[in-house]
Amino acid sequence: MSAETKVDVLGRFDATIQRLKDAAADSECKGGALLKDIYLELAQTETDSRNAVAELIDAATDARDTLHSCIDALSSEEQDDHDALDRLTAALARVGGAP
Asked: Containing domain of residue 78, as a range?
């Protein structure tokens, strides 16, 4: 879904919510209480959806940070291994057993 389509859908959703809100506020509107309940339910659903998206973003951020930490740890271990190999090679060279 393109960004323009998303904006259009959100705009229509907001317009529908506003129409429901206006109808619920009209004291002469038949079923005004029902419309108000529907509006409140839609508003809560929107809030729940936004909260769920925020939680997913937080979880993805945490996963990314954990992955970066693992990569950093592996890089550090690899460097330590290279350093140890260099020290071993130097020690062997000093005793005349270098490959």
From this structure: 3-94
